[in-house]
């Protein structure tokens, strides 16, 4: 009698609508799982078509090609003698569902539709799918003819059911269902399900890995059981980075941990676990036994197959492990770098171009590219031939093998310092020194000629020549003169990205990288269509505070000594005239608020769902030691005015790596108007009323004490 089961879960770097590549990665994962002795293989959510198909889910082509891939899987010898659990959209009675398709030896065992859909933050599953709202209910699904010809089946079970093998009971749970207050695994476990599987499409956010791990541990800590979680990894064509972290747990203990960040397209995790450990764990709990004796029964699909071997005495059993979490600085170093690698190799471009100003933001972006080069070189040293093949294709040299991250940086990364008469020698030197230390191909460009040419056209037409504020100009003149510099830099960045390789006699173009952080986007402290307007932005979802910590991490771990001077310098846009060669303009003075305050505003606005009044109510307590209620009110009102005045900029902001849950990304995550009544008359009047009441109450208390 078998007791021990070897189970496999995986993290796959799938790509939306890349049916050829997705099929290859699925087959490879099954092959690896079988080679490790697994009898059950679990894959990520919607792995056949890719999770990020978005409105392509509406197209019948997407479902057609999914079934064609399924046909290939069913007929492949690789999938024989192992239960395969794959994800794809399925239309049942003219309703589209997000489904798991479980099959064994050319027979479909069950199609299990998702019951709880993710529909917040970056997720819009209700736009494309309908939840299965029939608990424990199963219907007949009529298979397409192409599948019938392979399986010999006309119909298969479709619905909320579980698999009953010769030795155990297995049930599917899908991504969001684990996060729900009444997760399916609760009732499934009470009905005797011993193995739970979860196929996810879960993306990375800073400091959030523990949530997923804790939920899985909790799922089996109370009622016992084995839990497998599979997840997508990488950039599948959008702003998100799916961060793997495949895992296996039993009775509240983690026994196998997958990588969170990796350049491996296929990662398979296996564990051999004793079913008797689940049974003895459950039998000890009288409260669970009482509830289980009263539980409703799930429809069981009987499978003439055993997950365990008849003689498994000598198979090793599990040992609990401690989950290894990355620090936020490591997450910034690894996540955006992996996202950049996926974007670069899949875009067909020859590298990146970054306007490098010598400030923290652009320097952090450069360090992320350098980190990407480090990971690429590490993967090649470990024998990853696929990564090496991509590198050779990108650099256009069939025999190239990078010997160091600096060498690779020099081939695929161009940095460009775009000086004006308002730029300082300090930032010039910092940009030059950083480029030298990371090995990028560095350009120095002076934009004054282009700026004067643009202003000359304006002067010819209007007969006017605007002045900076320090030279007697108005605020409008001052801002316009800053904007034209910033926009000229954007035009030049794209020009050099398109033609710099051509000028060197090489083929290919470069992706332009932006470097506006999440706080500046929230405040609107950027010029529309300036250097923040790029192809992609690896730091657009990261706060200034976290970027400063990341720079310190790079000093300590990448040996980039020039970053010390960059870290100690005050952030500045360098768009206004210098005074005796010294910088007068600083970001925080320009913005009228500190970066720490901006982070606070951002978290309250987005995460705590605060409007102006609610934010005021929270901050009068948080900042009570530093500011009076009237000062807090003034700060809150100023933030909301500047946020609303500049919100239109978010409609054109560069696609950025999503890393922070207070991101103002207008594309999907933070849906707001971009034309506001910026006076906020009713809201601000109510705040002023409360400030007055607080002030009067303070006077009355003082009088009573006298």
UniProtKB/TrEMBL annotation:
This protein's record includes keyword Cell inner membrane: no
Span of domain CN hydrolase: 5-275
E.C. code: 6.3.5.1
A Pfam entry, by short name: CN_hydrolase
UniProt keyword terms in alphabetical order: ATP-binding, Ligase, NAD, Nucleotide-binding
Pathway: Cofactor biosynthesis; NAD(+) biosynthesis; NAD(+) from deamido-NAD(+) (L-Gln route): step 1/1
Entries under PANTHER family matching the protein: GLUTAMINE-DEPENDENT NAD(+) SYNTHETASE (PTHR23090:SF9), NH 3 /GLUTAMINE-DEPENDENT NAD + SYNTHETASE (PTHR23090)
Assembly: Homohexamer.
NCBIfam families cross-referenced by the UniProt entry: nadE
Protein name per the record: Glutamine-dependent NAD(+) synthetase
Source organism: Polypterus senegalus (Senegal bichir)
Organism phylogeny: Eukaryota, Metazoa, Chordata, Craniata, Vertebrata
């Amino acid at each position: 009698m078998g007791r021990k089961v070897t189970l496999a879960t995986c993290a796959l770097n799938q790509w939306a609508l890349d049916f050829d590549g997705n099929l290859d990665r699925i087959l490879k994962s099954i092959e690896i799982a079988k080679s490790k002795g697994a009898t059950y293989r679990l894959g990520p959510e919607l792995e056949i078509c890719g999770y990020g198909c978005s409105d392509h889910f509406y197209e019948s082509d997407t479902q057609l090609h999914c079934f064609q891939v399924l046909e290939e899987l069913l007929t492949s010898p690789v999938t024989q003698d192992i239960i395969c659990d794959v994800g794809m959209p399925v239309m049942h009675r003219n309703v589209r569902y997000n489904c798991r398709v479980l099959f064994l030896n050319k027979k479909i065992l069950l199609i299990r539709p998702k019951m709880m859909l993710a529909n917040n933050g970056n997720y819009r599953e209700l736009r494309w799918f309908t939840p299965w709202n029939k608990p424990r209910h199963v219907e007949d699904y009529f298979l397409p003819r192409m599948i019938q010809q392979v399986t010999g089946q006309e119909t298969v079970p479709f619905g909320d059911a579980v698999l009953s093998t010769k030795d155990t009971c297995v049930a599917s749970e899908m991504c969001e269902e684990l996060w729900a207050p009444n997760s399916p695994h609760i009732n499934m476990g009470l009905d005797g399900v011993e193995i739970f599987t979860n196929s996810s499409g879960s993306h990375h956010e800073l400091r959030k890995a523990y949530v997923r791990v804790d939920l899985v541990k909790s799922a089996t800590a109370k009622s016992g059981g084995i839990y497998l979680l599979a997840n997508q990894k990488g950039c599948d064509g959008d702003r998100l980075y799916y961060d793997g972290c495949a895992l296996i747990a039993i009775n509240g203990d983690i026994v196998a941990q997958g990588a969170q960040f990796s350049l491996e397209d296929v990662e398979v995790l296996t564990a051999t676990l004793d079913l008797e450990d689940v049974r003895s764990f459950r039998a000890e709990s009288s409260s669970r036994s009482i509830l289980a004796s009263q539980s409703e029964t799930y429809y069981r699909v009987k499978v003439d197959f055993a997950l365990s071997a008849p003689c498994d005495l000598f198979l090793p059993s599990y040992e609990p492990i401690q989950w290894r979490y990355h620090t936020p600085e490591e997450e910034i170093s690894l996540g955006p770098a992996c996202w950049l690698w996926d974007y670069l190799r899949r875009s067909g471009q020859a590298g990146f171009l970054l306007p490098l100003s010598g400030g923290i933001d652009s320097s952090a972006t450069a360090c992320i590219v350098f980190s990407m080069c480090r990971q690429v070189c590490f993967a090649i040293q470990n024998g990853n031939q696929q990564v090496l093949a991509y590198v050779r294709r990108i650099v256009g040299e069939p025999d190239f093998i990078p010997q160091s991250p600096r060498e690779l940086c020099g081939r695929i990364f161009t940095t460009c310092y775009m000086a004006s008469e308002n730029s300082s020698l300090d930032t010039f030197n910092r940009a030059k020194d950083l480029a030298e230390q990371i090995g990028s191909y560095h350009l120095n460009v002076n934009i004054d000629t282009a700026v004067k040419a643009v202003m000359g056209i304006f002067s010819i037409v209007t007969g006017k020549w605007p002045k900076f504020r320090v030279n007697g100009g108005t605020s409008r003149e001052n801002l316009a003169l800053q904007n034209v510099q910033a926009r000229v830099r954007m035009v030049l960045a794209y020009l050099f990205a398109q033609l710099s390789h051509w000028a060197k006699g090489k083929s290919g173009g470069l992706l332009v990288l932006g470097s506006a952080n999440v706080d500046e986007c929230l405040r609107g402290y950027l010029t529309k269509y300036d250097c923040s307007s790029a192809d992609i932005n690896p730091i657009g979802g990261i706060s200034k505070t976290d970027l400063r910590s990341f720079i310190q991490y790079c000093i300590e771990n990448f040996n980039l000594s020039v970053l010390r001077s960059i870290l100690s310098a005050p952030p500045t846009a360098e768009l206004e005239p210098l005074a005796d060669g010294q910088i007068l303009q600083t970001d925080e003075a320009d913005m009228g608020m500190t970066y720490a305050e901006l982070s606070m505003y951002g978290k309250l606005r987005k995460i705590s769902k605060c409007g102006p009044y609610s934010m005021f109510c929270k901050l009068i307590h948080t900042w009570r030691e530093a500011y009076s209620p009237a000062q807090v009110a003034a700060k809150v009102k100023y933030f909301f005015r500047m946020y609303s005045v500049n919100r239109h900029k978010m409609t054109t902001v560069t696609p950025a790596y999503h890393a922070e849950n207070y991101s103002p990304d207008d594309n999907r995550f933070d849906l707001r108007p971009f034309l506001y009544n910026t006076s906020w008359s009713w809201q601000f009047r109510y705040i002023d009323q409360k400030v007055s009441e607080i002030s009067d109450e303070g006077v009355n208390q003082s009088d009573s004490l006298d």
